[in-house]
Write a structure and sequence with these properties.
Length: about 850
């Protein structure tokens, strides 16, 4: 073998050194002479070697990839159904152990095998098929087919299976089984396997006139087990459909199908294209979780992950005669139409057409009060899935109330649902109107909706298409938004809220030179920053000052139990320990503001709260008066309310605790004996000593219950904000109560909720003729319409904060009437009362 080094071509020795043992020598870069002496071809050799090695490793890599990955087989599963014409359904087909089932199942398996084997992209990969169930029509067979395919051919297989046509079955087979439709849908192989091997399968057939119940294993005494795959096959007699209703639904929250979930199928196969709904989390009992099948079968599946901790669900179903009747010819001048079974979920595969015709000289308009035709991921522009069509215009998704009108006395409304994913549908009023005068004594919106004259040019989009706010002359107290040209109150300028929708009200809000802009947008001279005085009013000019060490205490820093001060805003209960002693995350303090039923609800009427939605809301009944005031639960024994509720009046000793009864977990005043409701007498009332029944300053009181309550899904405490927590102008909050529905009117039976916004203090003080003190905050709408009212007093103004907990921002206190224009409601400022609360409750 040749020694490379002896070959001059490869020698790295200087030629002149031939024959000497070389010493290691590093060439100085400047020693050009020595460098020049090298044979230049050596470079090509090195490059050649490198390229050669690269080619070899690439080839090896490709081979490994080809055999280890590309050729590696992956399991593929498809599920679906085939319809068989030349068989008649018999009861024995409902039971997979009967000879009848097995015989027909074998024929279907043979047919599927032949169908697959006849296709070059499918046949070689086919492993096995199973028939999982049959149903009527003539006979529909539900199957699972398994394949094993090299990964690089998986996509080809997918396309081939999904595009398979039943006509490809050979003639001989077709004479045995006359099949006229074939559906296939890919299925996660692991999921398919776990469902097939599972013992948690139930087969239920509705009994005429009876309700059949079923629930998750262990319900309601023990939580459902972890890692479960359960399925319930629901059947009804031929000519019937299934009405399924979940009476209780309490499962873990799920996200992108991790966690626990239930799926409902309008079929007996777990094919996604037949999925009606995925359910997870918790639904309040009042949520109408009712579903209807389009045929006489339905499948319910349950998947749980490794940590099932919730009670699960209890459901019941019954059969109702199948009817395809919906829509119709309407000749009345007004009425109501709804999607089938509203507010239950409408069925898949339905079409309803309403042909509305009113007297010849009138036009028709229709107002959709509720509109939920939503399928996550579906396009709301093209409405290719479920939709309502009027005058060739399609509507779909989830919509706020809207009006559609026609320029003639006729209107055709068409509702169409496709075969998957249903929603609660719609309810709508239609009516005829005089084409010359659509809104007598009212303002006519562009969409022909009628609003009160006073709502025109008031800065609020009452028509929902802004037509009431166009071409208005802005008054001296208003400014004009840039894009929409709408007039808005001037105090919306620079308040940190995008009131115009184009931020034009929040532009040019910077402070002049040598000024500091506070967090509340106020401008103060730069020199006032860090002067140890709160010039901003929100303390932001005294935070982060260089001479102030990070943990220095000010009025605006959070104080830990050990007196350490935290400059971070809202450090309490945010999941991060900021205090060395951990007191900002104290479990007792942070066990508040939770809503077991946090799901968005869709209740007819709009302002009814949902059961359990505000579990800290308390109704205070005064003997002989019934409900008189609201209050908020803040601990197992303590309530916060308004001091003015407990002032002796007209000879009645409202300050006497024995006069009062507290109802907790209450939803409907007429159902105070419901099992969710807990009743307590009051042991002690402490009203703020400085409460003034002239100014309503310091309108706060603490009530002690006769004995502690146990927290439940319907009874939970609200969080008390630290004195440093701010509820900024424009923030939306909930006011709740059983107070009067209109000024001077009677109270509500069902707890009401209203979404209102914090209003700028100075502007509100102007509107209320300087009657505010620092212990009051304003919330509502300057335009009026939504407000607290008599009987709501003492109740909570609840704010959902970034830690996903509800905080008591205010206590309903007073107002100039209810819901009047320019007269927002006034609330006790709870943060301003923090020290009083601490002293009087220990919280
Ligand atoms: C009341 O009399 C009352 N509009 C409470 C709140 C409001 C008005 C009156 C606010 O209890």
């Amino acid at each position: 073998m040749k020694d490379m080094d002896s070959n001059p071509r490869y020698s790295h020795r200087p030629q002149s050194m031939n024959g000497y043992e070389e010493a290691v020598e590093f060439l100085p870069a400047t020693d050009t002479k020595k460098v020049e002496k090298r044979d230049p071809r050596w470079k090509f050799v090195v490059i050649g070697v490198v390229i050669g090695a690269a080619v070899i490793s690439l080839a090896v890599g490709l081979l490994v990839w080809h055999f280890a990955y590309r050729m590696a087989r992956v399991p593929k599963v498809y599920t679906g159904s085939v319809r068989i014409n030349n068989y008649v359904f018999v009861d024995a087909y409902e039971n997979s152990s009967t000879p009848e089932f097995k015989q027909l199942a074998n024929k279907v398996k043979d047919m599927l095998g032949e169908l697959y084997r006849g296709q070059k992209d499918i046949g070689p990969h086919f492993t096995e098929s199973y028939v999982t169930a049959f149903s009527e029509g003539s006979v529909i067979a539900y199957y699972l087919s398994e394949f094993s395919v090299p990964s690089y051919k998986a996509e080809v297989l997918d396309n081939a299976v999904l595009n398979l046509k039943i006509q490809s079955v050979n003639l001989r087979m077709r004479q045995i089984l006359s099949v006229d439709s074939f559906e296939a849908y890919p299925l996660d192989a692991n999921l398919a396997r776990s469902f097939r091997n599972n013992s948690c399968s139930y087969f239920l057939h509705a009994k005429p006139g009876e309700v059949t119940k079923f629930s998750t294993p262990g319900f309601p005494n023990t939580p459902y087990p972890p890692n479960m795959r359960c399925q319930w096959t629901l059947r009804a007699d031929a000519g019937h459909v299934i009405r399924l209703h979940f009476k209780t639904f309490k499962m873990d929250i799920c996200k992108d199908l991790t966690g626990d979930y239930v799926k409902l199928y309008d079929s007996l196969s777990i094919a996604e294209n037949r999925r009606m709904m995925t359910l997870c989390g918790s639904y309040p009992p009042s949520y109408n979780l009712t579903f209807f099948s389009s045929q006489n079968v339905m499948l319910v599946t349950l998947v749980t992950d490794s940590k099932g901790r919730q009670p699960g669900f209890m459901a019941q179903f019954r059969q109702i005669p199948q009817t395809t009747l919906c829509g119709g010819i309407i000749r009345n001048s007004e009425g109501v139409i709804t999607s089938p079974f509203y507010p239950a979920h409408y069925q898949a595969n339905r079409e309803c057409i309403w042909d509305i015709q009113v007297p010849g000289d009138k036009y028709v308009k229709i107002r959709f009060n509720m509109f939920y035709l939503l399928e996550t991921g579906a396009s709301e522009n093209s409405c290719t899935k479920d939709f309502v069509e009027i005058n060739h215009q399609k509507y779909c998704g989830e919509k706020k109330p809207f009006v559609v009108s026609s320029n003639s006395n006729k209107m055709t409304v068409r509702f169409r649902s496709d075969q998957s994913v249903t929603d609660t549908g719609f309810t709508a009023d239609y009516l005829s109107y005089d084409s010359q005068n659509p809104c007598p004594d009212k303002f006519t919106c562009k969409d022909r909706r009628c609003i009160n004259m006073a709502q025109q040019c008031d800065g609020w989009n009452d028509c929902s298409d802004f037509s009431d706010e166009l071409n208005c002359n802005c008054s001296a107290s208003q400014f004009r938004c840039k894009n929409s040209q709408i007039c808005k109150p001037k105090f919306f300028l620079c308040d940190g809220v995008d009131d115009c929708g184009d931020r034009s009200d929040e532009k040019d809000c910077g402070c002049p030179d040598n000024n500091f802009q506070c967090t509340n947008k106020k401008c103060i001279p730069e020199a006032q920053k860090c002067d140890k005085t709160d010039n901003c009013g929100d303390g932001s000019d005294e935070i982060g000052c260089p001479e102030v060490p990070p943990n220095t205490c000010t009025k605006f820093t959070y104080k830990c139990k050990n007196n350490q001060c935290i400059t971070k805003t809202n450090p309490d209960c945010d999941g991060v320990q900021d205090c060395q002693d951990g007191s900002d995350e104290d479990t007792n303090m942070c066990n508040c503001g939770k809503r077991p039923y946090s799901r968005k609800t869709r209740i007819v009427g709009g302002v009814n709260a949902d059961v359990g939605e505000f579990p800290w809301q308390v109704s205070l009944h005064a003997r002989n008066d019934g409900h008189a005031c609201g209050a908020s639960l803040v601990s197992p024994t303590l309530l916060l309310s308004a001091a003015h509720c407990f002032q002796d009046l007209q000879g009645i000793r409202y300050s006497d605790p024995s006069l009062w009864t507290a109802y907790l977990g209450l939803h409907n005043q007429a159902q105070r004996t419901s099992q969710n409701v807990v009743q307590r007498s009051i042991k002690r009332i402490v009203a703020h000593k400085s409460f003034s029944d002239y100014t309503y300053d310091n309108d706060i009181a603490m009530l002690e219950l006769s004995s502690p309550v146990t927290y439940t899904d319907f009874i939970q405490p609200i969080c008390i904000p630290d004195s440093t927590r701010t509820f900024p102008v424009g923030k939306s909050l909930w006011v709740t109560g059983w107070g009067a529905l209109i000024e001077g009117g009677t109270g509500a039976s069902v707890l009401q909720k209203a979404d209102i916004r914090i209003i700028n203090y100075n502007e509100c003080n102007q509107l209320l003729e300087n009657q505010l003190t620092e212990r009051m905050i304003c919330a509502g709408f300057v335009s009026g319409g939504i407000d607290a009212c008599q009987g709501d007093s003492g109740g909570p103004l609840s704010s959902l904060e970034s830690n996903n907990k509800m905080y008591l921002a205010g206590v309903v206190s007073w107002g100039d009437g209810c819901a009047r224009r320019n007269k927002p409601g006034i609330y006790t400022n709870v943060t301003a009362m923090r020290d009083w609360i601490k002293v009087n409750t220990g919280l």
